[in-house]
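so my prof wants the structure for this chain in the tokens format not the other one, which i didnt know existed until like an hour ago. anyway here's the sequence
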Amino acid sequence: MPRRPARGHFADVQGAPRGLIMHYMLHRISQKPSHGYEILKEIESRTEGDWKPGAGSIYPILRKLVSEGYIEAEEARSGGTGQRVYHITGRGLRHMKEAKESFLKAGKRWVSMRKIFMDLIGPEDVSSLVLEGSKRQFGLARELFRSRSDQMDGTEVRYILQEYILNLEMQLEWARSVLKQGAAAGPEGEVLQGSGHT
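here's what i got, hopefully its the right format
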């Protein structure tokens, strides 16, 4: 039986696109001037420990961002931690704005590849993936609204939430339909077959 990857198998930054971590680091620094260790711990925290890039990955990217004029390094002050604090530049802000569209398109492409991933999932993994996936999806939606709703128009927020409720209701209807079919078929029935909902 093949051994499953341990938690934290994205420990090397190469486990994710290099452009993604670079863009996130710029975003993080634009929100709050930071030093490398803060960014490293933030990535680990935001990915719930699944992605732990090391200093050997973070600091070369910071040097590259400095050399390209996207961020500036503030020299360590005497009596401080001895770590350089990085600040975003005007050029860095412009780069973030231009790169945002590319990452949105990349995200949509990943979503469109979901059926390929589904082919690779065994029956023994369905339970954990469905349950954990639904929890993470809800967590993402909640965090997005907590962090962005005050920057959005109230009408847009209401529209998004109403559509979100409709999606949840469709999911609930589908789940109840599958359970009902399973109960009618009995314990040996094909519980996950024949649902008319997608």
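also thought this was worth mentioning. The CA atoms of residues 31 and 88 lie 9 Å apart.
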